[in-house]
Fold:
Amino acid sequence: MAFYSLDPAMGQALNALVKQLEAEGRPGLEASLSLTWLRLDPDPEGPPPRGASWNGDCLRYPASVVKLVYLVAAEAWLQRRLIEDDPELRRALETMIRDSSNDATSLVVDLLSGTSSGPSLPPVRFERWAQQRRLVNDWLNSLGWPELAGCNACQKTWDDGPYGRENDFYGVDRNNRNSLSTEATARLLYAVVRDRLVSPPACARMRGLLRRSLDPLARQADPLNQVDGFLGGGLPEGARLWSKAGWMSQARHDAAYIEVDGQAPVVLVAFSEGRAAAADETLLPEISRRLLSLDLP
Structure:
């Protein structure tokens, strides 16, 4: 059973939106796009969210959205005292989320797994190393969420690409790349928003890192603001945004929690694949703008 209740009106609206967006000059969008859209009860103790998905269970390369997984895992490790809480870890977590730093992510993954990058290893040592690198996957599996089935979060993120043992770990034809679905990502973000993972203080810290400024001057001063060209770019004036975006040559993704006065809070996750989607700076803002403008009960 899904963690949200399917809403037929939301499903019809989502299907119509995807088809309309493709008809506007985005051939193949129906296959290359995944969306999960949730409307939350204003009361955190209220009923489960209502929602709908388009290709929501499709596993796709998540790019930097996987950093949301590593953020939550770091808080879970800290709670279990598997790693030490220190200023350098906090600095890395902040830079990983706010600036999407791959260097900071490398440190976080090393701490979570007890591994480090380097040259190729002999087979026995490499297998031990690989087993350690799957610890985040083991933790995800321990949550028992059906949405996480088949998901993979064991790789670092790169500016150039993996080398040595990291390249070996990617596997033949990159078949061990990270993979997430919008359903899994939406459930993770929903849990953080509603204090249902790790602990309420940990969720509050994570929300603090995920909060995005919608001030135009702040966005203009930050070329990597994770708002323009993403879901935050379509929000109305006065909205509030918590998000983690991912962008590369073959993907443009975003996972967002959105509050707009007078409307139900929203969790919206969009994964779009392919060079055309990656270069399309209007797609994700259009998705959020049109969905938030709908008059639904």
Remarks:
- The chain has one domain: 5-292.
